[in-house]
Write a structure and sequence with these properties.
The structure is a homodimer of 166-residue chains.
Chain A lengths: L17 H19 L5 H10 L8 H9 L7 H13 L3 E4 L4 E4 L10 E5 L5 E4 L2 H13 L3 E12 L1 H7 L1
Parallel strand pairs in A: 3-5
Antiparallel strand pairs in A: 1-2, 3-4
Chain B binds a DNA duplex (30 and 30 nucleotides) through helix 4.
DNA sequence: ATTCAATGGTTATAGTATACTATTACTGTT
DNA sequence: AACAGTAATAGTATACTATAACCATTGAAT
């Protein structure tokens, strides 16, 4: 990921080499888990890889269907446990409005993100816009509300689908 | 529903007369549906009333359980259909992160809201903060993203629970 | 009165998530 | 080697959330 402007995520380019995305995500995860002394087991790593199949959030049961093809006896808890671990480590995010999961673009440190989700191509872009977080903090603060967790999800059309569609 | 400062919602006061909240919500709904020429049937009205049981979002199946006690043959579709109607009319909102529904504080016109949800007392406060919407619009706009729908939900502790708790 | 669309009843099923119990595998210790 | 402690996984069942599909009824407008 770049140097400046890190908070300004983008939708993946149309013809981008997605195998690179996957490989990078897995490398980063390996390094991160090693550093933290937590175990990115084969199963967890494979689930992470499946989540990274595309930039579109994927349902837990879609992960399960794929996992089942190679892993006898995979059951819902198999997947949910792995996803729970990956979420704790910040490696995947849950998209509440879709009941689905997406790989984290920048898992190095804890953060709150915002998501732009394209209703046409399904892809999700992760933002970390300080201005949004400031506005949220101000509003909550003025009511004396102590924020523990945020969900910010905007659904619509990404620039690319917007052009090709209408 | 004052005049100025309308966008600044509040958590309901501790000892507030909640029967008033319910009565007002139902009156508003009656008037609104009459004006729009849509039918707030007995069933829909009762579901709305059940959603307004408290300021905490309520699950569809909780609504169903209560409805069943007085309405033979109530089934999931009974409730979901009513909730769909109420949502279309802006009378209730869905809280994505809870899979639950809450009465709209100000249903007169379409709007996008933000929610503060207390993890202790369960209550949800609905905000309509232009600053938040501006920040979201700017961020999405800078990526060429066309926003159709927003989910903004902050979970944490309301001022009251914050004091009594810690 | 007739008709057509909206509403609701009924049954079945899809989709999402967790509780609970048991087992395995890896640690360090004796 | 035997053991205990812990983390991870397996396996089963069930809870919870939501929709599909089909039919009967209602009710408002012509």
């Amino acid at each position: 990921m770049g140097k400046g402007n890190d908070h300004k995520a983008r939708f993946a380019e149309d013809g981008h080499d997605h195998r690179r995305c996957i490989a990078e995500a897995l490398e980063t995860a390996d390094a991160l888990c090693a550093r933290r002394g937590v175990r990115l087991t084969k199963l967890r790593r494979r689930v992470l890889e499946l989540v990274w199949t595309s930039h579109a959030p994927i349902g837990a049961y879609d992960v399960l269907r794929r996992l089942s093809q190679e892993h006898d006896g995979a059951a819902p808890p198999t997947v949910y446990r792995a996803l729970d671990f990956l979420r704790e480590q910040g490696l995947v995010h849950r998209i509440e409005s879709l009941n689905a999961f997406v790989g984290c673009a920048d898992p190095a440190e804890a953060h709150t993100s915002q998501f732009l989700i394209c209703q046409d191509c399904g892809a999700a872009a992760e933002l970390q816009d300080p201005a949004i977080n400031r506005a949220l903090a101000r509003s909550a603060g003025s009511l004396g509300f102590l924020v523990k967790d945020k969900t910010v999800e905007l659904r619509g059309l990404c620039a690319h689908c917007r052009e090709s569609g209408a």
